[in-house]
Task: structure prediction
Amino acid sequence: MGDIEKIAVIGAGIMGRGIAHVCALGGFDVIMQDVSEEFLRNSAAIISTNMQKGVDRKKLTPDQKVAVEAKLGLSTNLAEAVADADLVIEAIPEDLALKQETFKKIEPCCPRHTILATNTSSMSVTEIGAVVSDSGRTIGLHFFNPVHLMKLVEIISGLETTPETLAACEAACRRMGKETVRINEFPGFVTTRINAMIGNEAFTMLQEGLGSPEDIDRALKLGLNHPMGPFEMVDLVGLDTRLKILEYLHQTLGEKYRPAPLMVKYVKAGRLGRKVGRGVYEYGEKK
Ligand code: NAD
Result:
């Protein structure tokens, strides 16, 4: 397995665009793929804005911004995007069937050495990877939101993931400026399982009338030293994404992960978080 130089990121949403950003910053050639050109253009513009903030804060030079933009390609064509990728990172919605179907489509379009990674935040890397003929080159690369600011990548080995696949991904993440931890697959890994429990408990408290979202958030920030409150966090993550995670943990790990009915109601109302301008809090416009 040679060094990774070319990366395809599938899905240009909150996570995909952040992953594409740090890949390009690490000097990799990147193609970001999504189903619509509008999503791609919008995500490329957000990457550009985030890099400009880095330049303004003197964390990046203007030349780095130009170099990153030159490294980033956009495509709506999956086969074209993965054709000569050494690493594919899938960041499409948290839906097992959709991820498996996408892995199946990718495999015949890319070289035999290509590593196929999923950014799933909770699901079985083994189960997603089992649909391709060589599951040894499948792995979980769990990035955190906002990707360009968060230090960690939780690297999840499935049952068949080879040590070579793991080593190549650790090296690639280091080149993106990230720290890594090695985790063996289990639903929700470490971070998602803990975070989903805290967030779900906060919704249950809100439902029980313990306090306002602001007071519950302040209690965790000022009393427990959490950098963000659970409602600020779920608005950033996306309530639909969080609900899918809880449904999966409930199905795989049992009753204590049953989604709070109030969270389900918010999702039904379309209050999906910052990405649509309103979640637990109102933002006025999409953020
Ligand atoms: P998102 O809804 O913001 O973005 C998903 C993107 O995938 C959209 O742009 C959509 O158009 C695109 N897409 C859908 N189907 C596609 C297909 N078949 N081919 C190509 N693109 C397709 O979702 P997100 O928050 O970026 O989450 C993506 C993944 O990352 C999920 O598995 C999620 O669990 C995981 N994750 C999310 C967070 C978070 O904080 N949001 C953190 C870590 C991991």
Q: What stands out?
A: The chain has two domains: 6-184, 192-276.
